[in-house]
Amino acid sequence: MRKLLINISLFFLIAIIIGEIVVRVTHAMSDIPQRTIDEHGIQKYIPNQEGYWKGGDHKWLINKLGWPGVLPESNKNLIMVIGDSFIENFMNPNECHQSAYLKSNMNDYNFMEASRSGVSFIEAMEITKQMDSLNPIHSLIYLDDDDFYESITQIKPMSDITQLDIETNTIKYGEMKSPGLKKILYTWKLMYYFYNRFSLGSLFQPETLNDNSKVKEPEFTTEVIKLIDYVKQNYVTINKTLVFHPNSKKSFIEICKSAGFNTILLDSSNDDSWTFDYDSHWTCYGHKRAAEQISNHLLNSNNQGILNNFNIIKK
Amino acid sequence: MLFNSLEFFIFLPIVFGLYWVIGGKRIKSQNVLIALASYVFYGWWDWRFLSLILFSTLVDYSIGLALGKKEKLKTRKILLWISICVNLGFLGFFKYYNFFIDSLIDSFTFFGSELSINTLNIILPVGISFYTFQTLSYTIDVYNKKLEPTKDFVGFMAFVSFFPQLVAGPIERATNLLPQFSIERKFNYKNAVDGLRQVLWGLFKKIVIADNCAKYANIIFNNHTEYNGSTLLLGAFFFAFQIYGDFSGYSDIAIGVSRLFGFNLKRNFAFPYFSRDIAEFWRRWHISLSTWFRDYLYIPLGGSRGGLKMKIRNTFIIFIVSGFWHGANWTFIIWGALNALYFLPLLLTKKNRINTNLVAEGKYFPTLKELRQMAFTFFITLIAWVFFRADSVAHAFSYLYNMFDTSLFSEIEVLPSTILTLVLFFIATEWLGRSGQYAIEKIDFMKKPIRWAFYILLIILMFSFTGEEQQFIYFQF
User: Fold this and answer.
1) Is the pLDDT of residue A207 over 80?
2) B331 in helix, strand or coil?
3) Which residues of A touch B444 (CB under 8 A)?
4) Does domain A59-177+215-314 have CATH number 3.40.50.1110?
């Protein structure tokens, strides 16, 4: 028995080492950049990192400011592009980022992305505040319905995301969730491969009853109104355009409009190629189409004033 | 609990550790552990099924004891029939009730009248066909005085529910497995390593071969009208390897796991696709079921000893019953009948036992004649598999009709080259290892680094080609 246990242990050790090499060489798992929390409480990435996306077809890049993507050549006529994993866009090469497509459509402007997967609406607003030092003329904030829910502690309490307590009107900054464990998991590629491939994470999640899925999710309109009221009082809204994902709730868009935001609702109807087959994120095609709709909206003669708002405010 | 699930990979080491901590000399305690572990394993699907297996165990244990005491033939016969009726009654109710009702309604409709009987919403208990036949073998053997009835209830309980082979066989005979529960089991390093190797090969067959072939077999079978003949032939080919990889993979895992616990189960597959005629195929495919039917049905019916009529009748009975055992659908019955048709000419010309040795024994390559024979046998089994896989008889005939048109010789429309390469690798490994109990048994004679490199290659292939976790096909039987 002892011999068997020793041999099995040895075999597994060798298998783990070989497995680690295979996973790394074949890029079976994406490299994951490490995060940090800056002095303003914003979770971003440690600057100047790079790595491969799953399969090794392309590399992602974290720039010197700690955001994914390439920095613009100049900050003149700068438009910020803020959002979650859709804007972070590790799954596509740099040339398929929103900033690249927007720049090709609007050559007189420069675009800078500031994104991180899981960013809530309130966190996106906090990011815009921090980005003011770069004097952007406008900000585009990409949102879906969940970004509103995830902004409000009373609806979806999440310790790793910046949220607003709408009872006390206080911001609760997100904390890093098990950073040590995550660092081990992301460094030990084989373990990360197993974790992802076999949904090991789900083993540690409480099971939800099937019946719950049939219950219609409440609208939470009152809570969202309180959130927008807070945003209206604490942030500049006039120089910001909220870009809503296709199929976002019309009621939320109306609430945001009434708070002074410019809004765009993206339209992907009858066009399945916007998203990957295996993932809800946008493909290069989806990004291109989204950027086209946004550029058309911003450059439309009726909306010309949008991009000048910041200058008006400054004057 | 599936063999290819995370739960089982946690469950097995725990049971294995506890089992050998208890030690081989404490047989009763080990049997209690096996019985408990087996009930947990089985109850993982649905705890309500446990009452059935427990009831079946109690009935056959009691009848076994009673048969041991009674000498009067009439009483013994009554006891045997009680066991048969209870076991087959459960099987018939859970597996065949709706089929008979539907068939009855269909035949009334065919003759122009209507019959109104409701079918029932019955869940088929996993593996019921397997443990029913296993317990039946006990009472029949006790009745025939081939076996002394056991007085050890826990041992009997462990025999009926022995988790490695509970849900998909091999169907063990009481004469082989039951006595192993009353003798000391000693840990044997060589046996354990061999068992683990067989488990690894079984997992490879299931995860890499069966599950990946299933993906394409399902696509082609479910959309058969959209494909040309050559693609449909490939679909049948994929199904042939799906069912072989799935079922023989399960058997390998079952046999391998049993060896870890010091038990020896019967061999269930012996490289059937290298058979030179259909009789040889049936000596190599699902051996535990074929021999069960041979010993408990074919021979009692007279076997091949009688005249021409009896031979034909018995051949059809055994193959049709075997088909029906697989499921309550006419497709399985036709699959059985078709195999009977394949087999009869060999039986009647007394050529059914000419290929009893290993094909191309001691050689790397078969002769052209052997190759032709193997190709022909594989081809006719492929035709039969179409009935086995099809959803209905009409589906099977439509599939074959579309397959055997002129497009049979046109370009294949679905050609997953990676999966085909894996199947070729699998066939080559099986061919090279065909003299062993399982394909990679003989690798034991190679040097450790080569062996381990091969095992790691199999593991890498398994992780690289893991599709969606699929149920083992034979669980539904």
Assistant:
1) no
2) helix
3) none
4) yes
